[in-house]
Amino acid sequence: MRNILVTVMMLVVVVLLFNSIISKDSTGTKAQIETQGNLANTKIGTMSVTP
């Protein structure tokens, strides 16, 4: 029973850490990746190829 409780508590901690580090609205890793990706797409879109 104690092992199950410890496992459940560890899973809860992992979920809370994931939500605070990865999924945070404006400062999380996901938001930073999206921001950098959008900037890269904009730069690529403004490049022109001249033969």
What would you say about this model in short?
This protein has two helices and no strands.
Describe the structure.
- The chain has 51 residues and is mainly alpha-helical.
- It is 75% helix and 0% strand.
- The chain contains two helices and no strands.
- The protein has helices at residues 2-21, 29-46.
- The longest helix is centred in the first third of the chain and has 20 residues, at 2-21.
- The chain is rod-shaped and about 70 Å long.
- The mean pLDDT is 88.
Q: Main traits of this protein?
A:
0% strand, 51 residues, mainly alpha, 2 helices, 75% helix
Q: What's the layout of helices and strands?
A:
Elements: H1 2-21, H2 29-46
- What ranges have pLDDT less than 50 throughout 5 or more consecutive residues? none
Give helix and strand order, one letter per element, not per position. HH
Radius of gyration: 20 Å
Number of strands: 0
Largest sheet: none
Helix content: over 70%
Structural class: mainly alpha
Count of DSSP H/I helices: 2
Mean pLDDT: 88
Shape: rod-shaped
Q: Which percent range describes the beta-strand content?
A: under 5%
The N- to C-terminal Cα distance equals 71 Å
